[in-house]
Write a structure and sequence with these properties.
The complex is a heterodimer. Chain A contains 1 helix and 8 strands, in the order αββββββββ. By secondary structure, chain A is mainly beta. Chain A has one domain. In chain A, the strands form 2 sheets. Chain A has a 5-stranded antiparallel β-sheet with strand order 6-5-4-7-8. Chain A has a 3-stranded antiparallel β-sheet with strand order 2-1-3. In chain A, a hairpin with a 5-residue loop joins strand 7 and strand 8. The longest helix of chain A has 8 residues. Chain A is globular, with a radius of gyration of 16 Å. Chain B has a single domain, classed as Thiolase/Chalcone synthase (Peroxisomal Thiolase, Chain A, domain 1). Chain B is 32% helix and 18% strand. Chain B has a 9-stranded mixed β-sheet, sandwiched between helices. Chain B has a two-stranded antiparallel sheet with strand order 5-6. In chain B, helix 2 links the parallel strand 2 and strand 3. Chain B is globular. Classes of the chains: A mainly beta, B alpha/beta. At the A-B interface, strand 4, strand 5 and strand 6 of A face helix 4, helix 5 and strand 5 of B. Strand 4 of chain A pairs antiparallel with strand 5 of chain B, so a sheet runs across the interface.
Chain lengths: 134, 393
């Protein structure tokens, strides 16, 4: 049986991120002018409006900024997953990334606890960055 | 901005209701039109008087509904307004924009409306959010919109300030008591106890089902004009004493204000400056309450209590009938019906017009007769706030 959950829908802004994920790299735009690392991707830096941009690879380490536990499946493919955890991870480089926390019980998760990335290869084309406690 | 000259210069002069809750087999458009007609009749105006029409952003049409546009509503109302607008993406600018048009002389009577058939059309929470991020890229992680979005913010509030279910229970139960006095409320005949709240199923933790508002069928509308024009009309006008709006805009997934201050702080400051009063002068609040946490955080941001001290402020039914600081006296979105920011705003108007029946503030509910009510409308996930201070005439 194939992968039944939703898959990413890359556009011209987000494609570089998802291509990076396939290579198991978390790629973010960094402003060459002021150094701000931004997410989601944009043509200009929201801090200084410079369009001079480079892509950097995150170390994949951060902390749980906030998290919730889904007890209801809003999509049939998640019926067997509940309860599952979605979270915002604040990466050391700055961006806040929506993700899942895996590899521990929901009751063990706390805000601000350190986490690191692990990769879930969901299809030929896509890998998802998820996070586990350090 | 020299807003003080606008204090009390504009008034709300009529409110339109429709059947609401589980009405069944009606289009969203029909609710818009009925609410608008009733607002015009309530204000004692002729339909030709309406020269401004503003409608809320409409969600994706359900079943075989047509897309809502202001043209369609104007056509069915038989009016040709000078100005029409449809606000998109959860911004909260209708009333500020209406006042701008009145002040500049483009309009004399602006009609503002919302309607939906969300209950009988079984609209979920899924499609209600407007995200800065592509939706599909949230869904890959099993993230499906508003309940979890607000729950994320609530969890951060619990972590930073110790906000949480103890306070939310007070909010849910107190608002239900108001709804039990309001025959039009969806939850009129359903009581809610502390025990029922505590034992309720999780939705998206930390929210239980009673922390989230249900969707509803129905519509709501109101009309704003100059206080000068309002003097000769049918209803006792309700003055717009102060108004402010602020849009932090950042998506909740990137926000660093999950535990506040949200837009309510800045919008509140602007509204209070215009009104020339402080929070000590407020007799009651009507606060947008898509979730219980929204009420706690919004009132915290206005400064009614210090961060994390919400429980002491809400406890012992302080905001319920008979309490000394009524909040969401129709039952609110949680227990009356969902009409976006029109649920709190029109309730503030009706209370100050002294037209609220069994739930009327004053002797009837063993509360203070109100002169000044603060109404608050939040949009997105704390991305937008409009604060309106109303005064009885």
């Amino acid at each position: 049986m194939g992968y039944e959950k939703p898959v990413p829908k890359p556009n011209s802004d987000t494609r570089a991120f998802w291509v990076g994920c396939k290579d198991h790299e978390l790629r973010f735009q960094k402003c060459k002018e002021c150094g701000h690392v931004r997410w989601p991707p944009s043509v200009v830096c929201p801090k200084c409006y410079s369009s001079e941009t480079e892509w950097i690879v995150s170390k994949g380490k951060g902390r749980v900024y906030s998290f919730v536990v889904y007890h209801v499946a809003f999509h049939p493919a998640f019926r067997d997953e509940v309860p599952y955890v979605t979270a915002i991870v604040e990466l050391q480089e700055g961006p806040h990334l929506l993700t899942n926390i895996v590899g521990c019980k929901a009751s063990e998760i706390k805000c601000d606890m350190p986490v690191e990335v692990l990769w879930e290869d969901i299809t030929e084309e896509f890998s998802l960055p998820k996070f586990k406690p350090v | 901005m020299n807003s003080k000259q606008l204090r009390d210069k504009y008034s709300i002069i009529g409110v339109g209701y429709t059947p609401q809750g589980n009405v069944g087999d009606r289009t969203a458009l029909s609710f818009y039109v009925e609410a608008c007609v009733n607002a015009i009749l309530d204000a004692g105006l002729k339909k030709e008087d309406i020269d401004g029409l503003m409608v809320y952003r409409h969600f994706e049409p359900l079943t075989n509904d047509t897309e809502i546009t202001p043209y369609l509503i104007a056509q069915q109302l038989g009016i040709s307004p000078h100005i029409m607008a449809q606000e998109a993406n959860c911004a909260r600018g209708h009333l500020v924009n209406a006042i701008g048009l009145l002040e500049a002389g483009f309009c004399n009577y602006v009609l503002i409306a919302y309607g939906d058939n969300a209950f009988s059309g079984r609209r979920g929470f899924l499609k209600e959010a407007t995200h800065g991020e592509p939706e599909g890229d949230n869904e890959v992680f099993g993230e499906f919109g508003l309940v979890a979005n607000y729950a994320l913010a609530a969890r951060r509030g619990m972590h930073i300030f110790g906000m949480g279910p103890k306070t939310w229970r007070e909010i849910a139960v107190s608002q239900r008591k108001w709804a039990n006095l309001n025959p039009a409320a969806m939850m009129y005949k359903k009581t809610l106890s502390y025990e029922e709240y505590d034992n309720a199923k999780w939705l998206v933790e930390p929210f239980r089902i009673y922390d989230a508002c249900p969707v509803s069928d129905g519509g709501r509308a109101y009309i704003v004009t100059s206080t000068e024009r309002a003097r000769d009309l049918k209803q006792k006008p309700v003055y717009i004493m102060g108004i402010g709006e602020y849009n932090p805009s950042v998506d909740v997934h990137q926000s660093d204000f999950m535990e506040g201050p949200t837009g309510a702080k800045e919008a509140g400051k602007i509204a209070f400056t215009m009104a020339g009063i402080s929070i000590d002068d407020i007799d009651a609040c009507q606060v947008y309450d898509c979730f219980t946490y929204t009420v706690e955080l919004t009132l915290q941001d206005y400064g009614f209590f210090r961060p994390g001290e919400g429980y002491d402020w809400f406890k012992d039914g302080r905001t319920a009938p008979g309490g000394d600081f009524p909040v969401n006296t129709s039952g609110g979105l949680l227990s009356e019906a969902y009409f976006m920011g029109l649920t709190p705003l029109t309730e503030g108007v009706m209370q100050l017009m002294n037209r609220c029946g069994e739930r009327q503030l004053g002797p009837k509910t063993n509360t203070k007769k109100p002169e000044i009510i603060l109404c608050s409308d939040n949009g997105g996930v704390f991305q937008s706030n409009s604060t309106v201070i109303l005064r009885s005439s």
